[in-house]
Amino acid sequence: MDLIAKLNTILAEHAHTRVNGNVASQRTATAAGESLRATFRLLVQLGYRLQTPQNLEEKHIKALCVEWHKTKKAPKTIQGYISQLRIFSGWIGKPGMVKDIYYYLPDVPRNELRVNTVAERSKSWAEMGIDVAEKVDIAMQLDLRFGLQVMAQVAFGLRRLEVLQMKPWKCDKGNRFAVYKTKGGRPRDVDIDTEVQRAILDLIKSKVGKNEFLGWTQRTDGGPATLEYCERRYCYFMEKLGITKALAQVTGHGLRAQFAENAALLRNLIPPTLGGTAGQMPREDLDLTRVQVSEQLGHSRKSVTTAYYGSFGREVPLDDPRLRAKDAIEACLKTVTLDQVKAIPPERVSQCLSLANEIIGIGVYDDPRKIQLLWEHHSRRHAVDWLPPSPETNLAALEAAAASIMRPKASSVPTMQA
Fold it and tell me: Distances from the Cα of 124 to the Cαs of 73, 268, 274, 340, in angstroms?
């Protein structure tokens, strides 16, 4: 029996069980197998003739790390391989054998090996120049279930497996959306903050049976659909939609980053990825808002939000919001010409006047039709033409929309033809 065959035997015995003793998903087991097989094949290429995977030693780990760094593997990729080897060493009775990356590469500057999880630019569809509302319409035309899945991701920040496994009727808790099938098995509640979220959930419920998952129930050939089949179909339609790293520099997961940004804006906080500063509110308020957004995403630490919308850095003196917001909004509105604006529909008049009064409060006076255009830009982040403004304050959203309009965007994302 060759080395990989012996490794497969070990994987069959251990890969379906997590370190904590819980059952691991097929996806987790598959990822573990792919990582470890690639690792042992590399050892063979490096000239190590291991008779059995149990003969793995620290010298092999060091050789692997040196080779990964030499071939310019990303620190996050190397850390992933090391993490899997650390688990594997426990399987073969050698717990504690695998050290951290710095131990194996002592001569490499630490900053070159550090995994940077802080978002330095927005990962959201909207900030990549993608018209989210338009993409939702196209998704609905491609496949009804897929369109509903994209809408749910926009509204509730769901991961791919979460949206495929959600039971819409079970998730509806009135003013909250309950997420059950989560990463790590930790349930969470997402606040239903807007009329749009409520409308999206009601639409999904009208199209899906009371005991059905939102993922597909049948394959195209009529057989029952597995979760793995639903994942493949979801990825297939995302590619049809033109949403891949190669085509758009974002993936479906970018809607989760967009949800995080939207959740912050609804709480009057502008994320760093949208131009927000650390001085826009007192630090205690800023940290509280970050915790609230983190909980909406299913996390408990506020630091997790940095991966979605960047870091605010250290505490700084408070900004003058009137000056900061005034500069951004005034500069944007000056670029809007009258031929770009349209008449305000009767049902929006009072809301547009309310938004106009809000920016009058910071010393900006302009045509309400221009302000309508500004708010429409913000609304498209929620995949709708018009998001009813908050009865309290909308200044952060208006400021972020103004800054977004002024920022250069990526070119439009194509939709693949069937």
Answer: 25, 18, 10, 25
Question: Quick check: 356 and 371 in contact, CB under 8 A?
Answer: yes
Q: How many CA atoms lie within 13 A of 294 on its CB side?
A: 16
**Distance between CA atoms of residues 308 and 255, nearest Å:** 10
Tokens 């749910």 locate to: 152
Q: What is the pLDDT of residues 242-251, one digit of tens each?
A: 999 888 889 9
CA 309 vs CA 182, 253, 321, 326, 415: distances in Å: 21, 13, 20, 23, 26
- Tell how far CA 48 is from the center of its chain: 40
If one counts every other C-beta atom within 10 angstroms of the C-beta of residue 99, the result is: 14
* Higher local confidence (pLDDT), 365 or 413: 365
Closest CA to 252 of 185, 172, 381, 163: 163
DSSP state of 221: T
What backbone phi and psi angles, to 5 degrees, belong to 218?
Answer: -130, 150
Angle, vertex CA 391, rays to CA 152 and CA 272, nearest 5? 60
The rounded distance, in Å, linking the Cα atoms of 349 and 101 is 60
- Indicate the burial class of 344 (C-beta count within 10 angstroms; 0-12, 13-18, 19 or more): middle
Angle between helices 26-45 and 58-70 (to 10 degrees): 90
Q: Is the pLDDT of residue 157 over 80?
A: yes
**What mean pLDDT is reported for the chain?**
91
CA–CA separation, 76 vs 197, rounded Å?
35
Q: What does pTM read for this prediction?
A: 0.79
Between the CA of residue 319 and those of 278, 286, 290, 312, 344, what are the distances in Å?
8, 13, 18, 13, 33
* pLDDT of 28 over the 90 cut: no
